[in-house]
């Protein structure tokens, strides 16, 4: 094909599409990666989080100063949880704590009773927090 024919074809049909340069491919790849990360974050945040609620119902102190804490745990059936239970002494200082693993069950609401050993006599005990494991 001669240069004259090439010029005539370009004039009639337009130029051939330009290929993307290396810099263009890098920019395109970067944009796609950022969009993928944003999409993953969006989908992860959109997932419904299982709700865990724990409320101390009673606490009692035995003759050794240890705290027995009874609390109600509300969690979706089939979800195993772990709870942090603590005992407080004078001045609300923490004198004992314990992690309690609660196995999955078929019911949503349960009453759990835990004895927390203390290093000093306790004044009260409570469930601090619970989470799904």
Topology:
Layout (H helix, E strand, L loop, with lengths): L2 H11 L8 H25 L5 E10 L5 E9 L5 E8 L5 E9 L6 E8 L7 E9 L1
Antiparallel strand pairs: 1-2, 2-5, 3-4, 3-6
Question: What does this molecule look like?
Answer:
The strands form two sheets. The chain has a three-stranded antiparallel beta sheet, with no helix packed on it. It has a three-stranded antiparallel beta sheet with strand order 4-3-6, with no helix packed on it. The radius of gyration is 32 Å and the shape is rod-shaped. A hairpin with a 5-residue loop joins strand 1 (52-61) and strand 2 (67-75). By secondary structure, the protein is α+β, with helices and mostly antiparallel strands. The protein has two domains: 3-46, no CATH class; 52-132, Immunoglobulin-like, CATH 2.60.40. It has helices spanning 3-13, 22-46, and strands spanning 52-61, 67-75, 81-88, 94-102, 109-116, 124-132. The N and C termini lie far apart (72 Å). The model has no long low-confidence stretch (mean pLDDT 90).
List its salient traits.
single chain; alpha+beta; three-stranded antiparallel beta sheet; 2 domains; 133 residues; 2 helices
């Amino acid at each position: 094909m001669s240069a004259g024919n090439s010029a005539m074809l370009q004039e009639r049909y337009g130029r051939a599409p330009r290929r993307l340069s290396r810099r263009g491919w890098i920019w395109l790849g970067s944009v796609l990666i950022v969009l993928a990360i944003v999409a993953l974050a969006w989908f992860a945040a959109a997932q419904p989080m299982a709700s865990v609620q724990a409320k101390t119902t009673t606490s009692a102190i035995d003759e050794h100063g240890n705290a027995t804490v009874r609390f109600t745990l509300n969690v979706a059936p089939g979800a195993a949880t772990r709870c942090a239970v603590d005992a407080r002494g004078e001045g609300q200082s923490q004198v004992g704590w314990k992690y309690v693993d609660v196995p999955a069950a078929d019911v949503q609401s349960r009453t759990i009773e835990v004895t927390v050993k203390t290093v000093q006599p306790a004044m009260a005990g409570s469930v601090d927090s619970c989470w799904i494991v």
